[in-house]
Design a protein that fits this description.
Length: about 325
């Protein structure tokens, strides 16, 4: 019975995915059959932003789920246990930051990777450090930030420095507050147990990887669609003038821009170009808050986390990230 329910969920997710892509590709044809006033005003903005977020995120989601599947198939629990120092949880934070910096994935793609690492036995605080650093410190984001702010290297260096320091503090606080508790939901239809057992003695690693990746993708797809739609609604109907007024304040600005980053739900590979367009309106610290907070936690990322992590842990994670990033960015005014 559970197997039939799972198949039905997968087919529904596949149908919605194909429908959305088909509507995007056949947009001009559909527009010709629909009254023109339907595609005027704010509705067309919602549709455009929704599709742009979705199509921007899907390639990185695919990267994330394949990375997650590769970890499931090729990385053993014993290997992780040997690599992670058990006696020195705080000293292990620095290697975790460096691992995150080597992963070229955005904030939505890193969620399944972090989940898989935890299920493989990696301590929660280290997996979360990798999750918050990978979308900011990886080489692709560094290059995109440099390209967007080549006339203001303070933003480029500040983004990387603040993200590095914030990740260490976030990891330390989560270990102190959450310890070694299991943050993951217990899912009765979890694919690791089902497929891992079925293919335990199989030599076809490629097939195992594809099976795990497809399961992850369609599990996450519905949350990505919901998050993209709500983010598009927020971006369309939010009062931009109020944000600009508050964002120029040295104390309120970072908080406002953090909220703006959360709502906009941009991929970290593209957010620097959006931030650079606000360069003449907002303070440097406000821009840094936008560039650091958004990749660590945003609206669609929150929905993805809620799909797999316990609500109490997600709320704790959001609080720790919010307070840490705000305090560091406001404090960076002294250096800047």
């Amino acid at each position: 019975m559970k197997g039939l329910k799972k198949i039905g969920q997968d087919l529904t997710g596949l149908f919605l995915f194909i429908l959305i892509i088909g509507m995007f590709l056949a947009g001009e044809f559909i527009k010709g059959w629909v009254p023109e006033d339907v595609f005027e005003g704010s509705l067309v903005n919602v549709i455009t932003i929704f599709l742009s977020i979705l199509l921007e995120a899907i390639p990185f989601i695919l990267i994330g789920v394949f990375a997650s599947a590769l970890i499931q198939v090729f990385v053993s629990e014993s290997l992780l246990q040997r690599l992670v120092p058990k006696r020195f949880p705080y000293l292990a934070l620095l290697p975790a930051v460096l691992v995150g910096a080597l992963l070229p994935v955005c904030e939505c793609a890193i969620v399944p990777v972090a989940r898989r690492l935890i299920k493989k036995g990696m301590p929660t605080h280290l997996a979360i450090v990798i999750m918050v650093t990978a979308p900011i410190l990886n080489p692709i984001v560094l290059l995109s930030t440099y390209y967007a702010f080549q006339n203001n290297l303070t933003v480029v260096i500040g983004r990387m420095a603040i993200a590095f320091i914030a990740a260490l503090i976030i990891g330390a606080l989560l270990y102190k507050l959450f310890g070694r508790q299991d943050p993951l939901k217990q899912r009765s239809h979890d694919h690791e147990h089902h497929h891992g057992h079925d293919h335990e003695h199989s030599s076809n690693k490629l097939m195992q990887t594809l099976v795990h990746a497809s399961d992850e993708f369609f599990d996450m797809g519905k949350f990505l669609i919901i998050g993209a739609l709500l983010a598009a609604l927020f971006q369309t109907y939010i009062d931009r003038e109020t944000i600009v007024t508050l964002g120029s304040n040295n104390w309120a600005g970072p908080g406002v821009m953090m909220g703006f980053a959360y709502i906009m739900s941009l991929c970290s590979e593209a957010d620097a170009f959006v931030a650079s367009s606000f360069g003449n309106l907002f303070s440097t610290t406000s821009l840094l808050a936008f560039l650091v907070y958004g990749p660590m936690i945003d609206f669609k990322n929150t929905l993805l986390m809620l799909a797999y992590f316990k609500k109490s842990f997600v709320l704790l994670f959001m609080a720790v990230v919010t307070v840490t990033v705000y305090v560091i960015t406001v404090g960076s005014q002294i250096w800047l």
